[in-house]
Amino acid sequence: MFHPKIVTRDEWLAARTEFLVKEKEFTRQRYALAEARRELPMVKVDKEYIFDGPNGRAALGDLFDGRRQLIVYHFMFHPDWNAGCKHCSCVMDNLAGGLVHLTARDTSFVAVSRAPLAKLESFKKRMGWEFPWVSSYGSDFNQDYHVTLDPDQGHSYYNYRTVGIRGEMPGLSVFFNDDGQILHSYSTYFVGLDIFLPMYHLLDVTPLGRQEDDTNSMTAGDSSWIRFHDEYNAETAPTKS
């Protein structure tokens, strides 16, 4: 059981000031990492991908919606499922409210899943989301970007290593439109998605933290507490004053 260490205000201030040095160093390292990420080389997307969206069929280039940058969230939703992945749903709950600001920085966002569009639209309505979401059903997009794995078909490469698993996996990919030439600049998977979850970063500043195991990631370890946001019961709901 967690037992807080209780000290005087002056002792707390001394400890907090000392810890601030570590926080500032982490911030400098994070900025340096972001700069190094931007300097990664890019690869031309030679293959044509067609998606099914609310406005009809669309190519990858159409998803940019006239902007230079495109962020794709690979949302786990198998064609046979009737609902999307609860963890991916939690990711989008975390991201959805801030996506409107991306357009001011020449950046578009879209979620992509293999499930047919009708299932995506139905689940999207249930969740109350408004972000763009298209279906890659019938294309090789998910396989080529290593979020639908099938070892029998040679698609068992995930998170930059060979794995012995199959099925749908989460990820995020970034594309750049260089005067009509579409380039793939970045992809991250699994624990790499943690940085996009402000929910966890809020918990990180609390005494109890994430209250999971040492892996500290929604996509690994004990994350069984995650629910669709319309399924949290009275036991987990906030207490009303």
Q: What is the correct CATH architecture of the domain at 43-194?
A: 3-Layer(aba) Sandwich
Helix fraction, binned, reads 25-40%
Query: How would you characterize the largest beta sheet?
Result: 6 strands, mixed
Instruction: Tell me the strand order in the biggest sheet.
Output: 1-12-11-4-5-6
Termini gap: 27 Å
CATH homologous group name of the domain at 43-194:
Glutaredoxin
Please state the CA-atom Rg, rounded to the nearest Å: 20 Å
Q: Which ranges are low-confidence, i.e. pLDDT below 50, for 5 or more consecutive residues?
A: none
Strand content: 15-25%
Total number of beta strands: 12
CATH topology of the domain at 43-194: Glutaredoxin
Instruction: State the shape.
Output: globular
Pfam families: DUF899
Protein name: DUF899 domain-containing protein
InterPro entries: DUF899_thioredox, Thioredoxin-like_sf
